[in-house]
Backbone:
């Protein structure tokens, strides 16, 4: 019976212990994210790829180039052919 009462207290999200643990966890996550992004910014000259990968992951848009029409009217979907198309 005692176990069930203790479990039901800590199952409640509004219990003071749960609120405190959540607040501590959120602050630790925020600090870790800040440190990670700071390290990425400091190492941008050596490792540009990971910086831009992180920035791209935070973007909500996904830009893609649709198939283009060549001079002869054919659809071009190959990325290298799209880049060389005039």
Residues:
């Amino acid at each position: 019976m005692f176990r069930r009462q203790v479990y039901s207290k800590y199952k409640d999200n509004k219990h003071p212990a749960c609120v405190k643990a959540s607040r501590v966890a959120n602050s630790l996550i925020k600090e870790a994210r800040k440190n990670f992004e700071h390290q990425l910014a400091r190492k941008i000259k050596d490792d540009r790829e990971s910086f831009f990968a992180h920035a791209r992951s935070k973007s909500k848009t996904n830009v893609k180039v649709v198939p283009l029409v060549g001079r002869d009217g054919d659809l071009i979907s190959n990325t290298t052919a799209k880049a060389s198309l005039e």
